[in-house]
Amino acid sequence: MILVVNPGSSSIKFKLFNEAFEVLVEGLAERIGIDGALTLITNEKKHKFNTEFPDHLAAAETIIEKLRELNIVKNQNEIKSIGLRVVHGGDKIFEPVIIDSRIKKIIEINSKLAPLHNPPALVTIEAFEKTLSHAKLVACFDTAFHQSIKPEKFLYPVPYEWYEKNSVRRYGMHGISYAYIVKKFREVKQLKNNDFNLIIAHLGNGASITSIKNGKSFNTSMGLTPLDGLMMGTRSGEIDPSIIEYISKDSNMDVIEVTSILNKDSGLKGISGISSDMRDITSVMNENTRAKLAVDMYCQRVADFVIKYLNQLEGKIDGLIFTAGIGENSFIIREEIIKKLPMLNIELDSKSNIEQYDECLKISTNKSQYEVFKIRTNEELMICKDVIKLTK
Ligand code: AMP
């Protein structure tokens, strides 16, 4: 069995897979350091436990204990390996890796670039090292997939010393999701090699867009931090950097407060004044002008990136792919984005755009100049497959 873990600062999300890639149980340990709650879902049955999680170690121990109590694992040695999602591997990590002291050091060093994500990943790794000491631990980094991006695309036009001394550059995120989508596209199209280009819009609560050249990341919209690029649920995406100093002086706030507003109260939430959740916004966009404005801005920014990336790929793509919560589910947003791309001569198939689907569906007609797909991402499955590959 393989345990796939997504660590947060006060939570541990997980899925337990068997060797046939079937999910045996999924769960969430939350409110770590506050009080504690554990939810396990198996065979569509929900089990809830209120408990005490003073730290991540206590949460890890309780997860394993409850898996045994529910007879999902008979013996904890059945869990042979653990795959952990880690956000930031800096520029030293190119692929999934077995965790050792060097890798832990790299995660620690990169904590300054991902202060909300890397420290909890490290404590979760240490918790599972103690709880399941026999298991092999693998780290899958969100930044790793983007290491193929070249300097002219990953550097910002700032003093070069900021890159050399302070590691300022574009790193990109959602790499595990992009790796999964590329793999799925190859499978669906039955491609034998990496001779294909794509533009993939990962539109979730956090959102980014990536161009793929010959199967590898060629450019991506997230930057040094996840604040760059597209407009998101609560994040602004790219803005004039001088806004920070201007608002700071004009509203008497420090840089930390302004940056926090750009992360937590901007994007869809900031413009609509309603919600950061796209469902809440699209459901009222016909009667609420601010909701409509938020949708228009959101879609325009995605469309503008598509044009930019298509140009960088010399107009040669084998597919435009929508994925993640909004990309997979919102036919309105897909339609609005395509409407803002008149130069591409894409004709959406309105039936398949709204149709239910399992993993992947083409949503453009055969008359369309470019093929468009909606594909469901599955980061946990990607991690599970990487773990199996690495530990076999
Ligand atoms: P994620 O971060 O990938 O879970 O995506 C969360 C976003 O997906 C939220 O903005 C949700 O409103 C959006 N979302 C999920 N399901 C739908 C849906 N059926 N229609 C529109 N948006 C959706």
Question: How does this model look, in words?
Answer:
The chain is of the alpha/beta class. It folds into two domains: 2-141, 2-Layer Sandwich (Nucleotidyltransferase, domain 5), CATH 3.30.420; 191-379, Nucleotidyltransferase, domain 5, CATH 3.30.420. It has helices spanning 56-69, 101-109, 118-131, 151-154, 160-166, 175-189, 242-250, 255-264, 267-272, 278-282, 289-312, 324-329, 331-339, 350-354, 379-391; strands at 2-7, 12-17, 23-30, 37-42, 45-50, 81-86, 97-98, 136-141, 198-203, 207-213, 216-220, 320-323, 360-362, 372-375. It has an eight-stranded mixed sheet, with helices on both faces. α11 (289-312) packs across α13 (331-339). The longest helix has 24 residues, at 289-312. The radius of gyration is 21 Å and the shape is globular. It starts with a strand and ends with a helix. The relative contact order is 0.11. The mean pLDDT is 96. Adenosine monophosphate binds next to α10 and α12.
Summarize the structure.
The protein has helices at residues 56-69, 101-109, 118-131, 151-154, 160-166, 175-189, 242-250, 255-264, 267-272, 278-282, 289-312, 324-329, 331-339, 350-354, 379-391, and strands at 2-7, 12-17, 23-30, 37-42, 45-50, 81-86, 97-98, 136-141, 198-203, 207-213, 216-220, 320-323, 360-362, 372-375. With 392 residues, it is an alpha/beta fold.
Heterogens: adenosine monophosphate
- In angstroms, what is the radius of gyration? 21 Å
Give the N-to-C terminal Cα separation. Answer: 13 Å
CATH superfamily of the largest domain, please?
ATPase, nucleotide binding domain
Work out the number of β strands: 14
Poorly predicted ranges (pLDDT <50, ≥5 residues)? none
Share of β-strand residues: 15-25%
* Shape annotation: globular
Helix content: 25-40%
Strand order of the largest sheet: 5-4-3-2-1-6-8-7
Largest sheet report: 8 strands, mixed
